[in-house]
Amino acid sequence: MDYPTLHFPHPDGASMANAQVSGPPAAGPPGPGVPSARPARVPSRAALDETTLVVRAQDGDVGAFEELARRHQNALFRVAVRVLGDATDAEDALQDALVDAWRRIGGFRGEAAFSTWMYRIVTHRCTALVRRRRRTDPLPTDDGPGAPADDRSPTPERAAEVDAEMAALSWAVASLPEDQRTAWVLRELEGLGYSEISQITGAGETAVRGRIHRARGALAERMRAWR
Q1: Which residue, of 1, 33, 103, 173, has the greatest Cβ tally within 10 A?
Q2: Phi, psi of 15 (to 5 degrees)
Q3: Alpha-carbon span 50 to 108, nearest angstrom
Q4: CA dist 220 → 9, 104, 186, 214, 224 (Å)
């Protein structure tokens, strides 16, 4: 599932896509007898490494931040959808998180990976939304966990059985407490390590392991009828 392409709002209200970063004044024409210098080739932002993009974003380059967001938005959107169980809510949470990240980019010190820092902002937004709305909607089943990889066309009976199982799993994940759900999604669906999940959630590694263990047990119990 891909995050829909959106313009990320500038904190001052203007679209980042339309914002301009001021640079040094353009040099005047060369004097008599001075050959014109060939313009230096400027690499595209897409070719820049992440550290360079972060530094440029911290200097106010909104295009650099947009490139960072573009690189990570699909993974962040997947997590938001799976934690919140609703694509519209996930879009709202991610949009708010991106604006928040742009405002706070100057405070990023690189103690953790930029992706970890972004996961933390997004999951905090999602957790706040869950607590506000107390939603228990099922998670979407498209591109969801456990989707069958068999390319052969299933029989109508098998297709109905798979749909029912995916719906049951979606409800089971959605019914987990938000701390267990977030830890389980980051571990089982995004493949993050315990240390990184600890940095994202702010919980110790022991607590993270405990949450994931309890989530696994709860899901196994609720899905027992499908084994």
Answers
A1: 173
A2: -65, 140
A3: 13
A4: 42, 40, 18, 10, 6
Helix 87-104 vs helix 62-84: angle between axes, to the nearest 10 degrees? 140
For the chain, counts of helices (H) and of strands (E): 8, 0
**In contact, 122 and 35? CB cutoff 8 Å:** no
Task: Pick the closest to residue 223 from 170, 147, 156 (CA basis).
Answer: 170
Average pLDDT over residues 103-132: 89
What is the amino acid identity at position 212?
Answer: I
Q: Record the tokens describing residue 50, joined without a space.
A: 């992440």
| Structural contact between residues 105 and 117, judged by C-beta atoms closer than 8 angstroms | no
pLDDT band at 21 (very low <50, low <70, confident <90, very high): very low
pLDDT score of 153: 54
